[in-house]
């Protein structure tokens, strides 16, 4: 039951991000050679979040994160010791198990206030459903930063830089972004060895309600980076497909992202009677990847690209 609730929360978040993506014309991350500013932050500092300008009077010593992606970014910036509370859905890094839990989509305002944080890292994907709670936190004198939705790698870089500037970790943020860009560059360079693009069907929710990743999603950008074709690349966001329409796309590779809550996800796809003539099924090229690595807007997205590359082009990305 717990895993199912987590899945429903994740799917709701994915679809929310997808709607935002429908209004975005973000291109795959480019210009990765460009240098990122690395100036030190002097407090007080003002940042622009998803709501407007926010001023942080002094460097935070206690931080609460309301969403896993913010937590992962904070840890990557070396803020783990300052994190005093995380959501029920946080699972990375391992140290989050030692942090106070403040709830899921409906966070516990009283619990957060009791932790006496200087800053709460909220997120635009859920902020509209938590306006009253966020207002209560602000009324209690807590600075709330609403990190904008991210639907591309460039958006993620901006989120990292935002959190870095707000917490006195601008240099660390610049370093993390630069490292991500360098790794993406290396993968894209290796992908030039691809002679014939593979068509990939990405399945983020199984039958009977089959959802996939279209344009304006991390998965679509990842496939572009490794020189693969998204079977649903002409669709926007996170569209639902009938089984018949999905089969008609005849992908070379099928990637699922729900193995963490669906036992034997790959075997279930391989056993679908209506899919037996699909190229990916005939060649047994069905793979399940870690959903967090390909959908959570944080530093580990680079690992997601690497994982996708290895299953789509195993001969090139050994």
UniProtKB/TrEMBL annotation:
This protein's UniProt keywords: Coiled coil, Signal
Q: Which InterPro entries match?
A: ABC_Transporter_SBP, ABC_transptr_periplasmic_BD, Vit_B12_bind_prot
Task: Please tell me whether the keyword Cell membrane is annotated for this protein.
Answer: no
Q: Which residues form the signal peptide?
A: 1-26
What stretch or stretches form a coiled coil here? 170-197
Q: Which Pfam families match?
A: Peripla_BP_2
Domain (Fe/B12 periplasmic-binding): residue spans on this chain: 62-316
Q: Out of the domains of life, which is the source?
A: Bacteria
State the Gene Ontology BP annotations.
cellular response to iron ion
Family stated for the protein in its record: Belongs to the bacterial solute-binding protein 8 family.
Q: Which PANTHER family match?
A: MOLYBDATE-BINDING PROTEIN MOLA (PTHR30535:SF34), VITAMIN B12-BINDING PROTEIN (PTHR30535)
Its recorded name reads Iron complex transport system substrate-binding protein
